[in-house]
Amino acid sequence: MYSDKVMDHFTNPRNVGEIENASGVGTVGNAKCGDIMRIYLDIDDNHVIRDVKFKTFGCGAAIATSSMATELVKGKTIEEALEVTNKAVMEALDGLPPVKIHCSLLAEEAIHAALWDYATKNNIEIKGLKKPKSDIHEDEE
Ligand code: FES
Fold first, then answer.
1. pLDDT tens across 59-74, in order?
2. For this structure, is 59 an active site residue?
């Protein structure tokens, strides 16, 4: 049911933890399944994501997508990180079963929420970034 990559990132997730005094923190949940994901970003003056950590209270696919999403945005600029969609995360994981697609949306939205927090704190506008939802479940149906 799950690809080797999903299993690898689930059993050995990368970038688990938190960042003290993070540049931006985003928390997103899905009221339907009850899963919650929090992403911490450390962003330098050149808008490059120096470090990223996550904490996910959720299913295996949510943990695997958080892990892969953090790997994909690490070292990227905030503009590049915005292009890391849930589809890109799923592709990098060699796919997810259809019932688990919403788990990858949680990762995309949590990154956007952390970027939004960063933009708000620094009084800047990130082109193309929309105000994130705290609950992604409305999007699914
Ligand atoms: Fe809800 Fe995976 S079942 S995030």
1. 999 999 999 999 999 9
2. no
Tell me how long the chain is.
141
Average pLDDT over residues 68-95: 97
Q: Is 103 a catalytic residue?
A: yes
CATH of the domain at 73: 3.90.1010.10
Which range of residues forms the domain containing residue 31?
4-121
Active-site residue (options: 7, 33, 48, 92) = 33
105 touches 84 (CB < 8 A): no
Residue type, 134: S
Distance CA 72, CA 49 (A): 11
- Ligand 1 pocket, residues with Cβ under 6 angstroms: 30, 33, 35, 58-59, 61-62, 100, 102-103, 106
Interval 13-37: pLDDT, tens: 999 999 999 999 999 999 899 999 9
111 neighbors 39 (Cβ within 8 angstroms): yes
Bridge partners of 24? 41
